[in-house]
Amino acid sequence: MTTVTTRTIEYAADGLTMIGHLALPAGVDRRPAVLVGPEGVGLSDVERHRADALAELGYVALAFDLHGGRYLGDPEEMLARCMPLLADPDRMRGIGHAALDVLRAEPRTDPDRIAAVGYGTGGAIALELGRDGVDLRAIATVNGLTTGRPGEAARIRCPVWAGVGSEDPIMPPAQRNAFTAEMQAAGVDWRLVVYGGALHAFHHPPVDHIVLPGVGYHPQHAQRAWRDVVDLLAECLPVTE
After folding, report:
1. Other beta carbons less than 10 A from residue 74's beta carbon
2. DSSP state of 33
3. In this predicted model, what pLDDT tens digit does every residue of 189-227 receive, in sequence order?
4. Were both Cys, which of 21, 138, 164, 189 would link to 236 (CB 3.0–4.6 Å)?
């Protein structure tokens, strides 16, 4: 365990003032870095703690914002913002690039060694950065198996790992198949893990507000998915080279 330093960072994206959470490992040297994207409800302590955990492993980590510092616990409000966003690759890329610029500007970040890990909408944004040709070492998307504009997946320059619950009605088998077909056709180094019996957002601890149907926490698979993400980073973005 290393000593982690955290701070809040404000930056502009999507016409909003975003409020990200930066976590830094001990030391003063440059380190590989990870962009952490939240579910559609927005940045919460769940993603902040994940960024802190990555910093404990030796990474610079930025958990980025989606909604200008707001957490959208009302499902209708969340869908009203996220559905148009998910339908607009350029908007998603804009949000991702703005966060990536913040992460790259951090003096502790090695700008040539960055990965993107995202959940739900945050995972879709991570994928769009790859489809935009961003030089990333790895992309991980958990229950965010979105497909992009035709041909653009060929611009992905790194391995892609994806995780999804077998019982996720928001990312059903047809969506999984479309995603994997896109990755395969593009020649991407891709992996898909299907966690048996898990629903959408299975990785996210229970919340104290109404959630969409088909959303539910699966503690065992949540731990497994986290280990799978950490293993991906260890393979593609080791802390020491």
Report:
1. 12
2. E
3. 999 999 999 999 999 999 989 889 999 999 999 999 999
4. 138
Residue labelled with tokens 């790859």: 130
Residue type, 202: F
Cα 1 → chain centroid: 23
Spatial strand order in the sheet of 31-37: 5-13, 16-24, 60-63, 31-37, 109-119, 139-142, 160-165, 190-195
Whole-model pTM: value is: 0.97
Look over the chain and give the mean of its residue pLDDT values, rounded to a whole number.
Answer: 97
User: What is the residue-wise DSSP string for 11-22?
Assistant: EEETTEEEEEEE
Instruction: pLDDT band for 170, please (50, 70, 90 cuts).
Output: very high
Among all chains, which residue has been given the structure tokens 């293993």?
Answer: 231
Residue 240 has pLDDT above 90, yes or no: no
- Lookup: tokens for 34: 């990870």
Q: How far apart are CA 113 and CA 100, in angstroms?
A: 12
Contact criterion met (CB below 8 Å) for 134 and 100: yes
